[in-house]
């Protein structure tokens, strides 16, 4: 008799085989979909970033402690980055072409000169608002520097010599750690300037950890050139001092063509050249900034600022919102498109230094000096009412979360910050007037805003 072979029972059931095949295919597709949704940044060609550390910190410094977790797990609007070498050449050519143009071009703003008791000039509401419509190249715009910005001559010269892309950050009151950018290309440090502004309190912290030497006039920590600011000659509030390099970067770096502001609580994870190209140049915009993860209306941010005591003068917040309502601020609606929101996350700002972007920065800085350094409150007011209007790429939150890692501040106590640049400055929160009600519901000037934002039944 011949040898009888039997098919294992496992393979006798066609139904079981098809079921296993279907299950394995479904699991693979589910895994692929899950991974693809979380990936927001795509490159069109391979990219090998620098592998060597930019700086070695002592273990006591703790530059990577207390990273905050990512909120989003999906990505609806991914960003595609071009080839690194192509981007490098394109930005170099753009900067060279811009440098060859005359400084007397009509696209260059003229700034008001003079001396005043405050750095920003302390202009009235009507004086500030009168500059929202830019008319001709002979018009002078108030844009800070009515007092000297107290830095060394060597730092000032280095800032003027930065002629392409500049990355700027600031730490006041030793509120954050200096963190090195990650994912830099091999030629990035030769083509980009990194400047970190600090005050004396932060400098003492760096000296304590032996990161800098008190005797050295010019200091670098990894990619960052450290610029000491004698902030006692500026504003009492350190957060307001941080607003100067944040919004007047085009004046501090008059020859830079693009800039990236990075709050010191962030660590960049993508090469700045790719960011400028992918979020500003390719989108043909004046500015790129992330949408706020939770709020769409300015009044929502104002209520949160009041409720969570992000700013100590609650009555001052009310006056600010009433002023903006009276002068024409409206809640967000589809009529504001292509602006998708009125509230940004201003921890990361990418700018092309052109007339519209520079005008916006000047006007916004004037509002921050007039009221408070909570820049999200004045953002839509300036953006919507200024002329000419600015093109803004307000990208999705999940993109922001993959561009940078966010860390907690050094100090837990204190209020009145709001720019990621100051911390131990404190003031007792003022008791709000009885009609404040956190929602400005009884404010006649903002009634129309609230009716449009929530509907009449919610007010």
From TrEMBL:
Pfam families: TOD1_MUCI70
Residues annotated as domain TOD1/MUCI70 glycosyltransferase-like: 114-409
Signal sequence bounds: none
InterPro entries: TOD1_MUCI70, TOD1_MUCI70_glycTrfase_dom
Annotated protein name in UniProt: TOD1/MUCI70 glycosyltransferase-like domain-containing protein
């Amino acid at each position: 008799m011949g040898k009888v072979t039997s098919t294992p029972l496992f393979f006798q059931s066609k139904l079981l085989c098809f079921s296993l095949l279907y299950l394995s295919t479904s699991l693979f597709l589910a895994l692929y979909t899950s991974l693809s949704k979380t990936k927001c940044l795509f490159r069109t060609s391979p990219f090998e970033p620098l592998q060597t550390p930019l700086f070695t910190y002592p273990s006591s410094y703790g530059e990577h402690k207390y990273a905050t977790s990512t909120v989003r797990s999906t990505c609806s609007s991914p960003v595609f980055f071009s080839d690194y070498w192509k981007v490098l050449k394109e930005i170099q050519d753009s900067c060279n072409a811009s440098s060859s143009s005359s400084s007397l071009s009509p696209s260059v703003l003229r700034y008001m000169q003079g001396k005043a008791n405050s750095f920003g000039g302390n202009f009235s509401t009507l004086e500030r608002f009168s500059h929202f419509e830019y008319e001709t190249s002979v018009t002078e715009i108030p844009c800070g520097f009515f007092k000297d910005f107290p830095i060394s001559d060597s730092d000032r010269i280095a800032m003027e010599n930065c002629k392409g892309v500049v990355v700027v950050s600031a730490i006041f009151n030793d509120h954050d750690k200096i963190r090195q950018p990650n994912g830099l290309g091999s030629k990035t440090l030769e083509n980009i300037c990194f400047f970190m502004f600090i005050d004396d309190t932060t400098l003492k912290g760096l000296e304590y950890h032996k990161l800098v030497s008190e005797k050295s006039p010019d200091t670098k920590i990894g990619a960052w050139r450290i610029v000491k600011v004698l902030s006692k000659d500026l504003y009492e509030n350190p957060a307001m001092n941080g607003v100067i390099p944040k919004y007047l970067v085009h004046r501090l770096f008059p020859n830079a063509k693009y800039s990236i502001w990075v709050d010191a609580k962030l660590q960049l994870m993508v090469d700045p050249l790719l960011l400028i190209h992918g979020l500003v140049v390719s989108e043909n915009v004046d500015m790129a900034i992330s949408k706020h993860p939770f709020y769409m209306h300015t009044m929502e941010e104002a209520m949160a600022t009041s409720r969570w005591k992000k700013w100590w003068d609650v009555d001052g917040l009310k006056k600010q919102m009433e002023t903006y309502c009276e002068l024409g601020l409206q809640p967000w609606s589809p009529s504001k498109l292509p602006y998708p929101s009125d509230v940004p996350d201003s921890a990361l700002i990418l700018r092309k230094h052109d007339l519209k972007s520079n005008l916006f920065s000047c006007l916004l800085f004037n509002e921050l000096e007039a009221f408070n350094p909570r820049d999200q409150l004045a953002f839509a007011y300036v953006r919507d009412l200024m002329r000419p209007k600015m093109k803004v790429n307000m990208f999705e939150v999940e993109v922001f979360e993959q561009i940078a890692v966010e860390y907690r501040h050094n100090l837990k106590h204190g209020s009145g910050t709001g720019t990621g640049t100051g911390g131990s400055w404190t003031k007792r929160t003022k008791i709000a007037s009885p009609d404040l009600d956190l929602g400005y519901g009884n404010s006649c000037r903002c009634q129309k805003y609230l009716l449009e934002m929530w509907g009449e039944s919610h007010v």
